[in-house]
Amino acid sequence: MQKRLDFLAFFIPFVVYVLSLNSVWSADYQASILGLQYSLWKNHSFSLGVQGSPIVHSVDVGLFNGKYYSEISPGFAILALPFAELGFFLDGGTTINLWGNAVIFDELFVALTSALSAFVVYKICRFYAEPIPSLLASITLALGTSVWPFSTMIFIHGTSLFFSTSAVYLVLR
């Protein structure tokens, strides 16, 4: 019974998140994240290109010393890079497609880390409560808060939540 509840604490949020992936939320955020991932994948560089090169401009892309850079912290882009690489490969690998497979795979990474957050909350609750109330608390966090909408698009909050809840779990452990 315990192993089944452990599994459900992860599986229920993950399935709900995957079934509600957005993939077209914001070209600005996607341009910055995907641009950085594409540059890391293709050029092995944090620079998105030099001034005058054809890049996707957005509010999160800045110009410094003649080169374009993403103004968003690179942590998410680096962590989700294996997922994005698969998307770039499936998209043909020649350019960034703001509504292609790389977006879906990045969103899948966010859904995965958000579902893991729900699982970690379940494990934290198990220190203090029985399995069923712990599962309900986990599902409430996953589906009854803003975690759900932010887990269905490229948005770093779902991944940040995973690291935050993991830190609490490790301290309590």
Strand fraction equals 5-15%
Give the SSE string: HHEEEHHHHHH
Total beta strands: 3
Oligomeric state, counting identical vs distinct chains: single chain
Strand order of the largest sheet: 1-3-2
- Distance separating the two termini: 22 Å
Main beta-sheet annotation = 3 strands, antiparallel
Give the class from helix and strand content and strand pairing. mainly alpha
Instruction: Count up the helices.
Output: 8
Q: Regions with pLDDT < 50 over 5+ consecutive residues?
A: none
Compute the CA-based radius of gyration. 18 Å
The mean pLDDT is: 86
The gross shape turns out to be elongated
Fraction of residues in helix? 55-70%
- Whole-number count of domains: 1
Write the layout of secondary structure elements.
Blueprint lengths: L1 H18 L7 H16 L4 E4 L10 E4 L2 E4 L4 H5 L1 H10 L10 H25 L5 H13 L3 H4 L6 H16 L1
Antiparallel strand pairs: 1-3, 2-3
Helix pairs in contact: 1-5, 1-6, 2-4, 4-5, 5-6, 5-8
Task: Describe the structure in your own words.
By secondary structure, the protein is mainly alpha-helical. It has one domain. 62% of the residues lie in helices and 7% in strands. The chain contains 8 helices and 3 strands. The chain has helices at residues 2-19, 27-42, 75-79, 81-90, 101-125, 131-143, 147-150, 157-172; strands spanning 47-50, 61-64, 67-70. Strand 2 (61-64) and strand 3 (67-70) form a beta hairpin. Helix 1 packs antiparallel against helix 5. The longest helix has 25 residues, at 101-125. The protein starts with a helix and ends with a helix. The model has no long low-confidence stretch (mean pLDDT 86).
